[in-house]
Design a protein that fits this description.
Growth Hormone, Chain: A, 24 helices
Length: 524
């Protein structure tokens, strides 16, 4: 029966750009909620009477829940039909958003965020698969440019929008804003998203309970290790080692089960899709890019708040130029792919992104908000110019029947990459800051004439208020705080420079990709 469904001819009747409206709206909602809570965590921590570290589970629970659901999208699409599952995901996401806004305790918030992640996890893979199906190959680059704009810009705008809403209204409204958009998206999806025969409900679909169990254990334990590892000194803590062992064993068990069940088609995902060279290389590149995107979106507002004393709104506002870069690059991407091909466009994007990382590597504490604009703009432009072509070319050689499974596999690994990247960036900032502090503190001695003169100058300003001994200690304390600030700055600066290194490592692999865009352009 499956073969009959797949062989049945099908042509989409609705204009694909009309179908893109509900698809992009759903993508934007899901991606926005990955980061919109970041700057509101201190306010939520106060409302729930919890510590800041505990409040990070508000973000983590959403990412873990969506990560567990993403690989199951192909299964649920076959079980109830892809369009029906897409609609169900939007309903769950919208209802959970209401629950998040009404939460009056940490337990209720976690439950609501988990449910929201379950709903959101089904949105991205289906939306990506739909876009690849409805557009002909010659128009796909423009469509993927719009898709990339939504995927990348939403997490970038999340902190600024969340900061503005939190300061002008209150934190529950960062979730309540999903309600009207969710209802609109639900209506438009019902009206304008078609369901081809191969994506309809199928008979005799079995649930892979063992695979689902090991997937959930793998992602949950991995997220705990990544979230708490830096605070617990990573593998210096026995409980981290044990939890990492459980995570590794669960991952291996999940892979084994999926390979075993791939022959019968009863697995959650079909990992044989990784044999496709374009898909493997394109997905690998996107994992690194997603790690850079999500971690940089997290550490830049943190740096501005920590070192320069910016408010949550101003730190979020600093991300606006990155969004502008994304918008400009989305237009350029569609033009460049048609004119010069996907591979050259990806190379230009990666080089631009590396330049953005290097520009961030030159900042200091004497900057204004405007000085962040240029590096952010270049960073955002490079992200779209590299992410969109890689996303396009990774699935270009796959059939329509493979798109849903491929999208689930790709988004699973991208989510894991984002979590690992954010954790690595946090650890790098901490370790680099400590290293630079140890190097600089050697200069804070009485034998250093510059230090002694500076202590004398500062203490003379305090001498009218306190005794000489206290004034000297106050001056030394002020200089030490300045040293700590500079050490922390170096931690951020070096992390941004390593972003450039990570991006450059992708460049050699672009050569091995098969560029189908030039062929499609010539034929058209």
């Amino acid at each position: 029966m499956d073969n009959a469904i797949q062989s049945e001819e099908w042509k989409f009747k609705i204009n694909p750009w009309v179908t893109m409206v509900p698809v992009m709206l759903s993508i934007f909602m899901f991606a926005l909620d990955e980061t919109i809570s970041n700057v509101a965590l201190p306010y939520m921590a106060g409302s729930f009477s919890i510590s800041h570290n505990e409040s990070t589970w508000i973000i983590t629970s959403y990412l873990v829940a969506s990560g567990v659901i993403i690989p199951t999208v192909d299964f649920f699409s076959r079980l109830i039909g892809r369009k029906q599952y897409f609609i169900l995901s939007i309903i769950i996401f919208t209802v959970a958003s209401i629950m998040c806004g009404l939460a009056n305790s940490m337990a209720m918030m976690l439950i609501a965020r988990i449910i929201q992640g379950i709903g959101g996890g089904g949105i991205m893979p289906i939306a990506q698969a739909v876009i690849f199906e409805i557009f002909p190959k010659e128009k796909l680059p423009q469509a993927m440019a719009v898709f990339g704009l939504g995927v990348i810009m939403a997490p970038i705008l999340g902190p600024s929008l969340g900061g503005w809403i939190t300061e002008n209204w209150s934190w529950p409204f960062i979730y309540f804003i999903n309600i009207p958009f969710g209802i609109l998206c639900l209506y438009l999806t019902q009206q304008y998203v078609e369901e081809p025969p191969y994506s309809r409900k199928q008979q005799n679909v079995k649930m892979d309970f063992s695979g689902f169990f090991f997937l959930a254990v793998w992602l949950l334990t991995l997220q705990v290790v990544l979230d708490k590892g830096n605070d617990a000194d990573w593998f210096g803590a026995p409980w981290i080692c044990k939890l990492f062992a459980v995570s590794t064993i669960s991952f291996l068990a999940f892979v084994y089960i999926q390979k075993k069940k791939a022959k019968t088609g009863d697995g959650l995902i079909n990992l044989s899709i990784l044999r496709n060279k374009n898909f493997l290389i394109g997905t690998g590149g996107q994992i690194i890019l997603m790690a850079v995107l999500m971690s940089s979106a997290a550490i830049l507002p943190s740096m501005l708040q920590r070192l320069l004393g910016y408010t949550s709104f101003l730190s979020g506002l600093s991300m606006i130029p990155r969004g502008a870069g994304c918008f400009v690059a989305s237009i350029l991407s569609g033009i460049l792919v048609v004119r010069i091909g996907i591979k050259p466009t990806a190379v230009i994007g990666l080089v631009t992104l590396a330049m953005g990382g290097l520009l961030f590597g030159e900042i200091n504490t004497n900057i204004a908000l405007a000085n962040i604009a240029l590096p952010n703009f270049v960073f955002g432009a490079g992200m779209v110019l590299s992410m969109v072509p890689l996303s396009n070319i990774s699935c270009a050689t796959l059939s329509n029947e493979e798109q849903t499974n491929a999208s689930g596999v790709q988004n699973l690994f991208k989510n894991v990459g984002a979590a690992i990247g954010t954790s690595i960036a946090t650890t790098m900032i901490s370790r680099f800051s400590q290293a630079h502090q140890m190097m600089m503190v050697k200069s804070l001695t009485d034998t250093n004439t510059v230090f002694a003169e500076r202590v004398h100058t500062i203490s003379s300003a305090f001498i009218t208020q306190v005794d000489p001994i206290t004034a000297m200690h106050m001056a030394q304390g002020q200089l030490y705080r300045l040293l700590s600030q500079q050490a922390a700055l170096w931690g951020y600066v070096e992390t941004f420079r390593y972003y450039a290194v990570a991006v450059v490592l992708i460049l050699p692999f672009i050569y091995f990709l098969k560029d189908t865009s030039r062929k499609s352009t010539k034929e058209s």
